[in-house]
Write a structure and sequence with these properties.
Blueprint lengths: L3 E2 L10 H7 L15 H21 L6 E4 L2 H15 L6 E5 L4 H12 L3 E5 L9 H7 L4 E5 L13 H11 L2 E5 L18 E5 L10 E5 L14 H4 L7 H16 L1 H22 L3 E3 L10 E6 L4 H10 L2 E2 L15 H5 L4 H5 L1 E5 L6 H20 L2 H4 L1
Parallel strand pairs: 1-11, 3-4, 3-5, 5-6, 6-7
Antiparallel strand pairs: 2-8, 7-8, 9-10, 10-12
Helix pairs in contact: 1-8, 2-8, 3-4, 5-6, 9-13, 10-13
The structure holds pyridoxal-5'-phosphate.
């Protein structure tokens, strides 16, 4: 049976060139990068090299990059670090209702510790505006954290404009760019981004490694304390193979970004127009234009997303309904609800996320299989008959 993986927002396949660069750091080059002896030298310079590659991808300086265990840790470290360090200045944080749970749950935790958080509502496409951010900033605001691109519906926020507002107001601006890095151009200087989270496994790198960019001049105390690794910003012996993998993966993703984005958005648009044309009563979720090149998200009325996923899986197609973290629970996606979708419509959502490895044949196959699945499920749905 044909197998088609369209869940690249959940994770991606490790690139074989990336694996090849990582391999020696599991075997021959096993030294501890903190060791002063010769075994520590190669791992240490490999980390330095990876740090340069990550910095180059963002137009940052290498000293502004701290490696973490992934996007979740980077988000936690950013939000909790700023909250701790700047508490004497104020205890107000501005974020959005559609952030990843790594940001949302961290903000909720801080609320229990006396911080106040404004969760900005989004428009029907899942977007926030710079004006909303401006209006929400108060004298005691210490942090604005707004995601670069949404992991469920692919909407890209006006990050440069938000960055400009934050810089003008003197408020630290963090963005969760886990879904954006390697897909859309990012320049932390030009965009006035003070802090940025990224993760390797969303860009054909290994799982369990990511990075936090912190602009020079901003102090973000460590979340994980212990040894003096990462210039005291993140303790613990470094995940050397993972860091090497992140460096290679981000370099590959950025060098091929334009070509990949062009290729993926053509396939994305074919999938969108195919679904719209072949299946009645569907609604595209997310912004029609300001959208990640690899994201397709539809609400398919009268049926449950979970049953579509099951049937797709039986046909070899891997997709998602809402986000991987929320599937398994019966709550509809907080993102779709924040966009104003009703519970019923939100329940029938289907996310298909492409990679540069997705082919024309993959799209053809989905367009062949999906309409039949929807038709079958609808004939069994009492909602449809009414
Ligand atoms: C995947 C993801 C994360 C979490 O990253 P991990 O490396 O899996 O911890 C955070 N934010 C967004 C937007 C994501 O898509």
């Amino acid at each position: 049976m044909k197998r088609v993986y369209l869940d690249n927002a959940a994770t991606t396949r490790l690139n074989s060139e990336v694996l090849a660069e990582m391999m020696p750091y599991f075997t021959d080059n096993y030294g501890n990068p903190s060791s002063p002896h010769s075994f520590g030298q190669q791992p240490k310079s490999a980390i330095d090299n990876a740090r340069r590659r990550v910095a180059a991808a963002l137009n940052a300086e290498p000293v502004e990059i701290t490696f973490t265990s992934g996007g979740t840790e980077a988000d936690n470290a950013a939000v909790r670090g700023v909250a701790e360090r700047y508490a004497s200045k104020g205890r107000h944080i501005v974020t959005t209702a559609v952030e990843h749970h790594a940001v949302l749950h961290t903000c909720e935790l801080l609320e229990k510790h006396g911080y106040s958080v404004t969760y900005l509502p989004v428009d029907e496409y899942g977007m926030v505006s710079a004006q909303q951010v401006r209006d929400a900033i108060r004298d005691d605001t210490i942090l604005v954290t707004v995601m670069f691109a949404n992991n469920e519906v692919g909407t890209i926020n006006p990050i440069s404009e938000i960055g400009a507002v934050c810089r003008e107001k003197g408020v630290i601006f963090h963005t969760d760019a886990v879904q954006a890095v390697g897909h859309v151009p990012i320049d932390v200087k030009a965009m006035n981004i003070d802090m940025l989270s990224l993760s390797a496994h969303k860009l054909h790198g290994p799982k369990g490694v990511g990075a936090l960019y912190v602009r020079k001049g901003i102090v973000c105390p460590a979340l994980i304390v212990g040894g003096a690794q990462e210039r005291n910003r993140r303790a613990g012996t470094e995940n050397v193979p993972g860091i090497v993998g992140l460096g290679k993966a981000i370099e590959c993703a950025c060098s091929e970004m334009d070509a990949n984005a062009k290729k993926m958005s053509a396939l994305r648009d074919r999938l969108i127009s195919g679904i719209t044309g072949l299946i009645p009563e569907v609604k595209l979720n997310g912004h029609p234009v300001e959208r990640l090149p690899n994201n397709v998200n539809f609400s398919i009325k009268y049926i449950e997303g979970e049953s579509i996923l099951l049937m797709l899986d039986l046909n070899g197609i891997a997709a998602s309904s809402g986000s991987a973290c929320t599937s398994g629970s019966l709550d509809p996606s907080h993102v779709l609800l924040a966009m104003g979708l009703s519970h019923e419509i939100a329940h029938g959502s289907l996310r298909l996320t492409l990679s540069d490895e997705t082919t024309d044949e993959d799209i053809d196959y989905v367009l062949e299989v999906l309409p039949h699945i929807v038709e079958r499920l609808r004939t069994m749905s009492p909602l449809y008959h009414n």
